[in-house]
Amino acid sequence: MIKNIHFSLTVLQKRLLSVLLAITFLFCLIFIRFFYIQVVWGEELVLKASDQWNREIPVVAARGKIYDANGQLLVGNETAYSVFVRPASVADASYAAEVLAGVLGVDGDALEEKIKKGKVSEITVARQVESDKIEQLCAYNLAGVYYSRDNKRIYAYDDVLCQVLGFTSSDGSGLSGIEKMYNSVLEGQNGEIMYTTDIVGAETEDTRIVYKQATDGDGICLTIDLEIQLAAEQAMREVYASSNAASVSCIVLDPNNFDLLAMVNYPSYDLNDVPRDDTQKLNELSRNTAVCDIYEPGSTFKVLTAAADLQEYLNGNGAAFSPSYVFNSSRTRTVDGTKIKCWSDHANGKHSNQTLAEALNNSCNPCFTDIALALGTSTFYDYLYSFGLGNVTGIDFSGEALGMLVPQSLVRDCDLARIGFGQTVAVTALQLACAVASVVNGGNYYVPHLLKSIVSSDGKIVEENQPVLKNNTISAEASAMLCDMLEGVVKEGSGKKAYIEGYRVAGKTGTAQKYENGAVASGKYVSSFIGFFPADKPQYLALVIVDEPQGAYYGSTVAAPAAREIFQDIIDIKNIRPYV
Q1: pTM of structure
Q2: Cis bond leading into 267, ω under 30°?
């Protein structure tokens, strides 16, 4: 009997203990949940509750302005407005939609349907609305219709520098170009106007209004010199019209630090009237081809081959050709069973007894084939890598192309031979301009850049961009020898139409056949000229590219005169006195 009573008590104790443990467990769960709601989730719940009782209208920050290197305004803002509707506060949905449609040109039926559904607390009706239309709306005094300040981007020179500057979306975010690249600097931080409402979102009689000020974006100064840019734009328009070309491009840079002074791609488009409805057209016209597209450079590339040869000669490499060496006068070279020809027929002693300087003057392909083969793949490729080929330059602009360089392990002698005179290799205009700048400025390759400085809204410099030396390409001695030879090209050789009396202009022409589907495209050429001045201490370098000119197509007759025009304009703009 006692045993049974003891057993019953033990069972009862175990059951009580189980109940107590269950109660404790449940209590712990409730406590943890309470802690989570109050501490962890509390802030979010407060915000949700606040959101039910408050409505916000954004106060758009003024987007930072964009200036040229001399402080000339390129991109600014014009005050505009955004229009919002709060369905819960609208007295007559049909009437409100009718008025808004009449003044703003929106779809009235669709807007009325949105207002009546009331699924959202706020509807954005239109952005970047002009002030006169806001005045019209104000006269109607529509309940539930609100306005906030917005900004409309204004481009001071319409299509000038359009592919570089880029454009913004309707809400003010950068979509392309510099507007996109430096969006975080330019955009600022929006503020808001907060209204208290009742539970359904309608304003109450004692509505409180809280204003949070917007912080305007910083401005930026570019390295672009507007006067040089305008001169380059004019020269490109003229050559585009006179040659009936498919397109033209131009880069002007300072060889001493790789500041981009001008960058032109034509045809262009008006930044104040962006063709947003035609995506294909917009993509074509807004593409900065000088940075994002590649092409086969042809004879302008011979500047780099000559630079490599001169440096190897100074290094004591017996395979390199000295400046006094006389090249074989034969018109052809046969490499790996492939015959390589000079553009000239070499008749009547043409291109005979040529030194390196004369080979540059005459743009004789076989001589540069000899150089590339003599240096060999390993040595020549070391220079190509040093010149930045097959890689991005690092410019502060999105979408830069790598170029095309045959992998070193796959290069055959016939490939190497053609690379020597600018075939079987593809570059961007910027890559070529930077590579040539490095071999004529004493051998310094800098990272090219468009940003000069960041400035606050009150004009103070926040950050200043400094030149970044990437690597050295050739020695100052080799550079000086090369510059002297390239001055001869303009004085006596194929670049004569870039010559300016009294000024030491140097450069090299190029005419490259285009390829389509792996074969030469009949009658299609890329004509180009890359030049600089003064030859003994370069201050300005320009690359002009004319794609598919009709009629005359040699770089010497199409591109060189355009470069001369740009150089002459720079001389006039900067009041540069004659050197000789």
Answers
A1: 0.85
A2: yes
Predicted local confidence at residue 53, as pLDDT: 47
**CA separation for the pair 80, 77 (Å, rounded):** 9
Q: How many other CB atoms sit within 10 Å of the CB of residue 469?
A: 11
How far apart are alpha carbons 7 and 486 in whole angstroms? 112
Q: How far apart are CA 348 and CA 331, in angstroms?
A: 12
Token pair for residue 24? 């404790």
Question: Over the chain (580 residues), what is each successive 10-residue block's mean pLDDT?
Answer: 56 71 78 68 52 60 94 93 85 88 88 81 84 88 83 93 94 93 92 61 59 86 98 98 97 98 97 92 94 96 98 97 93 90 80 91 94 97 98 96 96 96 96 98 98 91 94 98 98 95 97 82 93 97 97 95 98 91
Helix (H) or strand (E) holding 404: strand 404-405
Catalytic residues: 299
Q: Considering only CA atoms, which of 494, 524, 490 is closest in space to residue 507?
A: 490
User: Is residue 449 within 8 Å of residue 396, measured between CB atoms?
Assistant: yes
Q: At what angle do helices 302-314 and 476-492 cross, to 10 degrees?
A: 140
Distances (CA, A) of 339 to 3, 11, 519: 115, 105, 16
Tell me which residue has tokens 């239309």.
Answer: 133
State the Cα angle at 122 between 121 and 128, rounded to 5°: 175
- Contact between 450 and 222 under an 8 Å Cβ cutoff? The reply is yes
In three-state secondary structure terms, 514 is: strand
Task: Fill in the amino acid letter for 411.
Answer: V
Contacts of 33 by beta carbon, 8 Å cutoff, 6+ apart:
none
How many degrees, rounded to 5, is the angle at CA 51 between CA 46 and CA 55? Answer: 150
CA dihedral 346, 347, 348, 353 (to 10 degrees): 20
Print burial letters for 109-120: b (CB count within 10 Å at least 16), e (below 16). Answer: eebbebbeeeee
